Request: fold
Amino acid sequence: NSRAYGGGMFLAPQASLEDGLLDVVIIRDVTKLRFLRLLPTVFNGRHVRQRNVTVIRAREVSVSAERRFVMYADGDPVGELPITVRALPAAINVVMPR
Reply:
C-alpha cells in the first residue's frame, strides 16, 4: 500500500505505509485510448484528479466479478475472484542497518 510503484508510478499518491488502510484506485468507464492517454499522469499523481478516477481508503476490500477473473498482486497471480483483502497494521518488522 505504497504511494509509488515500479519505476516511479504514483498510483495512490496519498497512500501511507503507516496508516493501516488500503488505498484502492478505481478507473471507470474509459476507452482503451483514454486509458493510454491517462497513463502518463500516473508518474506525477495527477490521474486522481480525473472524473473517471476514484480513490477509496478502507481497512478491508472485497472484489468480485460476473465472469472468471484472476487477481494479480505485484505482477503475480494470487487467486481468482471473489477475493477479500485486509490491511494488517504492523504485520511485519523491517530491520535495516543504521
